[in-house]
């Protein structure tokens, strides 16, 4: 088993791949004012935790779920089916096909970076179209050393001001932002913790390492989660 296979074994069957919940999605959709007949891209959809709520938000529209990891797309398509209102596509989320009223990206933007993602999405936003994404950042000026060491490999982790600056430098205007609440983290870490416990008994060394890392991440959040969080941002092109 490779480290990549161990990661996806750990995450197989989970509803979501990062913090998020129904309340946070509803807050963002209200702020973004997506039209009932809107076309929505779920960029980096994972297994599609938010797809059904996005479909409900555009009852006369369409949702395109896109992820680079094909098994997630296959899982989503098998669970929800694919029809005129839902397309499930394996591919680079920076290069979707068509135009969108809303591009939704829950916790996946770090894989490509804010600047690259916004640059790619800009050409795919309809007039008045908006982007909603969440990105991990520091909530305090001097986070604990343990938290800084753990997240040292996370791409260019910034504070709130730093995230906002990246958005503005990419030519977007921020309409609203807020830190995801604890409930959004619990919606992710609860099932992940249960999955880790389930896999412990017969785990080979490489998988055991992945389980240890997952458990350490959950434990870190319980002890130092007030020092970091996911900033949820609603933005639109500035011009």
TrEMBL record:
Pfam families reported in the protein's UniProt record: Methyltransf_25 (PF13649)
Source species taxonomy: Bacteria, Pseudomonadati, Pseudomonadota, Alphaproteobacteria, Rhodobacterales
Methyltransferase listed as a keyword: yes
Record-given protein name: Methylase involved in ubiquinone/menaquinone biosynthesis
GO MF entries: methyltransferase activity
Domain Methyltransferase: 40-129
Organism, scientific name: Cereibacter sphaeroides (strain ATCC 17023 / DSM 158 / JCM 6121 / CCUG 31486 / LMG 2827 / NBRC 12203 / NCIMB 8253 / ATH 2.4.1.)
GO biological process, one term: methylation
Record InterPro entries: Methyltransf_25, SAM-dependent_MTases_sf
Family annotation (CDD domains): AdoMet_MTases
Residues annotated as transmembrane: none
Keyword Transferase part of the UniProt annotation: yes
Keywords: Methyltransferase, Transferase, Ubiquinone
């Amino acid at each position: 088993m490779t480290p990549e296979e161990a990661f996806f074994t750990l995450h197989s069957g989970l509803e979501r791949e990062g913090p998020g919940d129904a309340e946070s999605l509803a807050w963002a959709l209200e702020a973004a004012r997506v039209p009932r007949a809107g076309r929505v891209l779920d960029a980096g959809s994972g297994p599609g935790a938010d797809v059904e709520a996005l479909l409900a938000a555009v009852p006369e529209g369409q949702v395109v779920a896109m992820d680079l990891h094909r098994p997630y797309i296959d899982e989503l398509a098998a669970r929800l089916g694919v029809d005129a209102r839902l397309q499930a596509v394996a591919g680079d989320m920076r290069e979707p096909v068509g135009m969108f009223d809303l591009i939704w990206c829950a916790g996946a933007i770090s894989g490509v970076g804010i600047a690259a993602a916004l640059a790619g999405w800009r050409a795919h936003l309809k007039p008045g179209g908006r982007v909603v994404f969440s990105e991990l950042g520091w909530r305090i000026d001097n986070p604990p050393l343990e938290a800084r060491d753990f997240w040292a490999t996370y791409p260019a982790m910034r504070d709130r001001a730093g995230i906002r600056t990246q958005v503005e430098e990419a030519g977007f205007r921020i309409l609203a932002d807020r830190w995801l609440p604890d409930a959004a983290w619990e919606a992710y870490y609860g099932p992940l913790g249960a999955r880790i416990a389930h896999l412990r008994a017969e785990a080979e060394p490489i998988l055991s390492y992945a389980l240890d890392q997952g458990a350490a991440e959950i434990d870190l959040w319980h002890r130092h989660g007030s020092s970091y969080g996911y900033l949820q941002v609603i933005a639109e092109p500035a011009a």
